[in-house]
Amino acid sequence: MKNKKRVFSGIQPSGDPHIGNYIGAIRNWVADQEEYDNIFCVVDQHAITASYDPEELRRNVRQLVAVYLASGLDPSRCSLFVQSHVPEHTELAWLLMCVTPMGWLSRMTQFKEKSEGKQEQVSAGLFTYPVLMAADILLYQADGVPVGDDQKQHVELARDTAQRFNHLFGETFTVPQPIIRPVGARVMGLDDPTRKMAKSESGQNHSIGLLDEPDRIRKKLARAVTDSHKEIVFDPRRPGVFNLLTIYRSLSGQSQEEIEAHFEGKGYGDMKRELADVVIATLEPVQARFRELTEDPAYIDELLAEHAARVRVIARATMDKVRRVMGLR
Ligand code: ATP
Ligand code: LTN
Question: Is the entire prediction scored with pTM above 0.85?
């Protein structure tokens, strides 16, 4: 089928993937894979912008590819590859850096948060990271970028960059749109529901890993921060309960009204137990498939090599054009 819109997205192999990554990103990629021409990447060069261990990075890359597949991304309908296997990403990033104003990057809230109090020490890569992300997207002329809410500003920067480039050098890039679901686009930490659930947060009870054992999931949810109220309703002013109910809503597919009616008269303990059931039932098939995939590392290696070669054809065509219009050839 031709004429499908193309989507591109990626996750950093910076730690164990969690249900925020699943609800905000992966699950939506899976749900829409028939509708789009799909390219999904493990963005390893983004994961080196903060301090890291090379051996762990290698492991995390393979783990994340297996999670993509185990979650239901179908390699016959999606290209799945690792960013550093296609060297055009960093080449385009440099060229785009030369057309991106410093002011745009200075306004990125993620950089401000991650560099808070240590501006002198963080890497220049952390600052220019959104340009590499713009390169990822523009290299493939993607129409849409399905992400969680925290990435909206970065996708908008990619849009602005494409427009600026096209204005300076002539029509070269497709201008991409963020694709963000209204529910579950920002899953919050279980230990602190005012902070986004993130791989890089270290707290024991912060996140639910996609590969966490059922027992662990129950324990973490039992300890999740709530409040001293009683009613189980969707009230954003009560962030703990709101977050747990949002996870329930995203994974059960039930409506807000159905959920509130269901929990009427019940306590937080019941709600947390039922939420654990839903989370465990969602993750069980993903984990089973993950275990199968890790038994055959050669399969993943071959798939990655084949898909990188396939997407590289698109990347090369874009770079030919970019070099030409920029006077580099
Ligand atoms: P890190 O802590 O290393 O920044 P992260 O857990 O925030 O990692 P990313 O690799 O930055 O995850 O994000 C991958 C995808 O998952 C993005 O589309 C992002 O928007 C989405 N995502 C990440 N965290 C959440 C969350 N808490 N809720 C919803 N979506 C999320
Ligand atoms: N910055 C993103 C990961 C990312 C990405 C991309 C997402 C890197 N390149 C291109 C979508 C499209 C993040 O989630 N931290």
Answer: yes
